[in-house]
Each structure stands twice: as structure tokens, then as C-alpha cells.
């Protein structure tokens, strides 16, 4: 004979009765307030090698006052790398180039930026190795506008022997590249012997400007003068178009050196090439800074000629040669 028993409840019904009456899903169960903490457990000895316990900032499961390493405790932060062994990478500032304008009619390709400017800065790179060792290296220049945007990059292309044998009188080739790496202009200076009479035409310095490379745009020709630097800006037929008149003393110590750009009749001042004084750096190194001014509406080919005259002036008057050791010994 079966004895009647209380109806058995399913597992789901039992779970519902145990759960908290809180209708929110996943709510934690209510704990009895009559909970009494038990006696403290046995003391755990500190780890080997650390007599006072774990170092600060290290996590121990039996030390309630410690935190994991990835958590910040006040101003203490985890060390990412050992100083001196894994140095943080130094990110150089990105070069900001002037936006390339649309092609302009009758403008040589690559000179569109120059056509829209009335002022540019020519900044020569400082070469500490050249100053220390006396070994002449290829010159490099950054061409920037007034806002500091890069317009062109100029590099000298001369072999080591020519640079160090002829120094400031060396023949050279300067290559002007734009933001896309295209060579948009080339400047060439032939060698001129200076051992002859100073008034002889064969001793006068000259610079040819090609824009685009291979197509002669004009020449920068030196004229003899007793106390001033005098040049003429010529077209491809070597016809004078403008003049350049320098100061009486081009080696101005403590002041800028201004070379005026004159009209063909020599009356009007059209622009200027100014070598800025950079303090001690100007007297100890070749890191020159030139500022060129010309009218905005001036023909872009003439702007290129003024631009080329700046480099001939730099090599003739401001490219200091390191002192050479004499092979003659005096008793």
C-alpha cells in the first residue's frame, strides 16, 4: 500500500522560491544578516626573497591591501620599459608642404608655387661634421614660404674631390625638387679661374638657370666693381633684364646684408635678397638664412633668376672655407 507523500516540486519551482523577490533579471540573492565571521586563519609566511612581504604594487591573493599591477595606486604607474635600454622612439615633426596649385598658362612646370609668392626663405642645413672635420660636404637648402610651409628642396650635386679641392670657387650643380620629388629647376656654375687679371671677363663668376632642367631660362653674371657686388640678370640670349647691387661690406657682422634687385635702368628697386644675421651661428658655420622679396606679379622666370642669384651670392660671399693645414713647417 503506497503512503501518500507531499507532491514533489520541480527544480525550476525550487529555484524560483530561493531567488530574491527582486523582479530584475540576474539580481543577487539576499544574504542573511545573522552571518557571523569565523576565526582568523593561520598566518601565511611571506614569499622567499622578500622578508617584509611582496614589494609595493605587486598583487598577492592573500594580501587584501595590495592591488594588481595594471591598476593605478595613487601616482604609482607600472614601468613599461627599462630606462636607457629601450629608449622611447623620437618622432620627428612632419614636413608640411605648400599645396600645389593648378597649372598656370605660360609657366614652366613645377614653378606654379613660385608664381603665387612674393617672399621666400632659403634656409641652409647646418652640417656639424663639416665644421668639426673641415671636410666640405654637399650643401642642402630648405625653401619655405612665410607660413613655414616647404616649397622646394635644393641639393648640391658635386663630387668630393671638386668640393674639397676648389672650396668656394668650385663648379657645382644645384637641383631643385618639389613636394613630389620632381626636379623642376637646375642651376649650374662653371669653373672660373681667378689667377688672371680680376677685370678679365674670363674670371667673372656666372650661374646658368635651367627651368625645366635642360632648358636654359637665363644667366646670373658678375660684373667687376671695386667695392660692391654687382650682377646682371640675363635672359637665355644673355641680354640684361635686371641688376643686383650689393652692400659695400658683404661680411656684415651683427647686421643683415641686403642685395637690392634693380630695374634695367638702375633707378627702381624691384626686390631684395637679404642674408639674415643669425648671431654666432652665422660667424661659425655655413648655415645661412636668406630672405628674398620680389613683386607678386613679376614674371615667374625672372623670379627664378632672382632665386638663382641668391645661391651664387651665397657661394661667393658667405660660404666660408674651413682653415687648411699648411704643409710648410717653420723653424
From TrEMBL:
Residues 37-48 have a biased composition (Pro residues). Pfam families: Scramblase. Residues 1-48 are annotated as: Disordered. GO terms for biological process: calcium activated phosphatidylcholine scrambling; calcium activated phosphatidylserine scrambling; cellular response to lipopolysaccharide. Keywords: Calcium, Lipoprotein, Palmitate. Transmembrane segments: none annotated. One of its GO terms (molecular function) is enzyme binding. GO terms for cellular component: nucleus; plasma membrane. Its cofactor is Ca(2+). InterPro entries: Scramblase. It comes from the Eukaryota. Belongs to the phospholipid scramblase family. May mediate accelerated ATP-independent bidirectional transbilayer migration of phospholipids upon binding calcium ions that results in a loss of phospholipid asymmetry in the plasma membrane. This is Phospholipid scramblase. It comes from Moschus moschiferus (Siberian musk deer). The lineage of its organism: Eukaryota, Metazoa, Chordata, Craniata, Vertebrata.
Amino acid at each position: 500500500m503506497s503512503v501518500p507523500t507531499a507532491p514533489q516540486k520541480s527544480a525550476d519551482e525550487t529555484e524560483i522560491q530561493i531567488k530574491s523577490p527582486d523582479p530584475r533579471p540576474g539580481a543577487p540573492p539576499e544574504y542573511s544578516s545573522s552571518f557571523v565571521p569565523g576565526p582568523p586563519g593561520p598566518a601565511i609566511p611571506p614569499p622567499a626573497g622578500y622578508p617584509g612581504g611582496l614589494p609595493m604594487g605587486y598583487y598577492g591573493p592573500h594580501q587584501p591591501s595590495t592591488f594588481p599591477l595594471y591598476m593605478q595606486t595613487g601616482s604609482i604607474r607600472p614601468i613599461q620599459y627599462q630606462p636607457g635600454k629601450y629608449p622611447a622612439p623620437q618622432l620627428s615633426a612632419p614636413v608640411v608642404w605648400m599645396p600645389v596649385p593648378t597649372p598656370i598658362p605660360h609657366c614652366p612646370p613645377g614653378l606654379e608655387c613660385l608664381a603665387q609668392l612674393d617672399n621666400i626663405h632659403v634656409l641652409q642645413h647646418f652640417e656639424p661634421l663639416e665644421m668639426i672635420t673641415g671636410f666640405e660636404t654637399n650643401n642642402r637648402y630648405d625653401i619655405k614660404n612665410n607660413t613655414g610651409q616647404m616649397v622646394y628642396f635644393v641639393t648640391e650635386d658635386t663630387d668630393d674631390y671638386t668640393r674639397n679641392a676648389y672650396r668656394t670657387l668650385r663648379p657645382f650643380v644645384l637641383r631643385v625638387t618639389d613636394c613630389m620629388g620632381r626636379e623642376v629647376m637646375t642651376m649650374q656654375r662653371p669653373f672660373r679661374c681667378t689667377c688672371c687679371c680680376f677685370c678679365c671677363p674670363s674670371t667673372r663668376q656666372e650661374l646658368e638657370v635651367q627651368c625645366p632642367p635642360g632648358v636654359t631660362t637665363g644667366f646670373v653674371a658678375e660684373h667687376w666693381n671695386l667695392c660692391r657686388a654687382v650682377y646682371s640678370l640675363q635672359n637665355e640670349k644673355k641680354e640684361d633684364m635686371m641688376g643686383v647691387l650689393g652692400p659695400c661690406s658683404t661680411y656684415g657682422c651683427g647686421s643683415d646684408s641686403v642685395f637690392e634687385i634693380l630695374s634695367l635702368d638702375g633707378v627702381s628697386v624691384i626686390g631684395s635678397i637679404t642674408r639674415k644675421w643669425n648671431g654666432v651661428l652665422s660667424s661659425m658655420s655655413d648655415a645661412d638664412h636668406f630672405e628674398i622679396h620680389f613683386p607678386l606679379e613679376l614674371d615667374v622666370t625672372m623670379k627664378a633668376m632672382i632665386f638663382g642669384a641668391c645661391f651664387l651670392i651665397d657661394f661667393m660671399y658667405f660660404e666660408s672655407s674651413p682653415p687648411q693645414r699648411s704643409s710648410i713647417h717653420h723653424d
